[in-house]
Amino acid sequence: MLTSNEAGALEASRDLVATATQLTKLSKRFGQAESAWAFGQWELRKRARQKFALADKMLFVREALEQASNEVVADYHASLFESGERVLDATAGIGGDLISLARRGLAVGCEIDPIRAGYAAHNLSVHRLEADVRVTSGLTFQGPYSGAFADPSRRVAGRRVEGMESYAPDPIALAAKFKALPRAVMKLSPMLSDEVLNEFGVGIQFVEFKGECREALLVFHEPAGVWAIQVETRERLAPLELTKTQAGPDQLLAEASPAAVRAHCLGQFGLAGLGDSNGYLTGDMIEANPWLTIYPVLWEGRPTEVAKQLKVLGASTPEIKQRGAGQDLVQLRKKWRSEGNRPVCVALYAVGKSLHAVITGPPLTSKSLAP
Asked: Which class is domain 245-369?
């Protein structure tokens, strides 16, 4: 529960710039610590708006907010459990996933940090939801539940970590507990290697949201196997490796979505891979597909010729993207600054030790791809 001074400082600091003058003014009314905290909460609330519709009423801890799932993704997590069953959130944090689990049915949240646990309870009340929030470790909680979710911390002192040894609580210990349940889900980084993820021996979902591969979900109640998942459409795509690659593009270049790349699904589209790009595909005819962004090819050749071709095409300064090329895109954008008005994109990729460039038009829409 907020103290009266905290609540007052929050309300009084709404829409104010956190200057020294404003902080001094509020400190006289509510206390220095409370006023600094309130300004900090508004800073976090502004950042949280991209994740939570009710961010301006919620409470946050910076590190926990950075790790928290977007509420749309959290709703997807909750959809993996049966409606009405009692589900444990073993790493409740500030309540991002717990809110979605509570909306679906009975939920228990475990959080070892009492401040975060208190914020989780507050954030549940903001959403007019209830859950049993305990200040304890999810590893040791023994209450009755038939499902469990966990998002082990993967940041140390604000730095993202990639090795399994740096997660807390230990995913191996969580997995041992989760495998005894009818349903369980664990969120890990998609940067973990296939070898590490496959050791769990459960279903793996590489989850994409707003064009980014956000997470690797271990789904303990699914058989071992891999899927790419798009949260917005709930589309699923199974792995299938490419059967052919070629050095140069055909009439169209397609960029596969991050989850499709991470889940090794590039063979699903019946197209050739472009060089060693691991994500660029090409063909003369490509059907509209939610997993592909498709561009018309205007020119291809060596990167040293790009500036000249941009002038020939009457192009504006291009969007630049790369796969496996290892170039400094900031410097290239300065180098390829162009005075034309035709929007274009430059895609860079490697073929062995050689660097290739393709100039394309803007992405094609489903309507423009129709026969």
From this structure: alpha beta
Alpha-carbon distance values, 224 to 187, 238, 264, 281, 303 (Å): 16, 12, 15, 28, 43
pTM for the model stands at: 0.91
What region does 274 belong to: left with phi over 0, alpha with psi -120 to 50, or beta?
A: beta
How far from chain centre, in Å, is Cα 14? Answer: 29
So what's the pLDDT on residue 160? 54
Beta-bridge mates of residue 345: 319, 360
Report whether 213 contacts 207 (CB < 8 A). Answer: yes
Instruction: For residue range 29-76, list pLDDT tens digits in order.
Output: 999 999 999 999 999 999 999 999 999 999 999 999 999 999 999 999
In the prediction, which pLDDT does 308 show?
96
The pair of three-digit structure tokens given for residue 125, joined into one six-digit string? 């009340």
* Strands of the sheet with 235-237, listed across from one edge: 132-134, 107-110, 87-89, 147-150, 183-188, 212-219, 203-209, 225-230, 235-237
Which residue(s) pair with 35 in the sheet?
Answer: none
Which run of H or E residues covers position 240? Answer: none
The pairing of beta strand 272-274 with beta strand 280-283:
antiparallel
Residue type, 295: Y
What is the average pLDDT value for the chain, to the nearest integer? 93
Question: How many Å apart are CA 134 and CA 153, to the nearest integer?
Answer: 18
Could you tell me the CATH superfamily of domain 63-235? Vaccinia Virus protein VP39 (3.40.50.150)
| E strand spans, the chain | 87-89, 107-110, 132-134, 147-150, 155-156, 159-160, 183-188, 203-209, 212-219, 225-230, 235-237, 245-246, 252-256, 272-274, 280-283, 292-301, 319-323, 345-351, 354-360
Domain ranges of the chain: 4-48, 63-235, 245-369
Is residue 141 within 8 A of residue 109, CB to CB? The reply is no
How far apart are the C-alpha atoms of 29 and 22, rounded to whole Å?
Answer: 11
Q: In terms of DSSP bridges, do strands 203-209 and 212-219 run parallel, antiparallel, or are they unpaired?
A: antiparallel
Q: Is 314 left (phi over 0), alpha (psi -120 to 50) or beta?
A: left
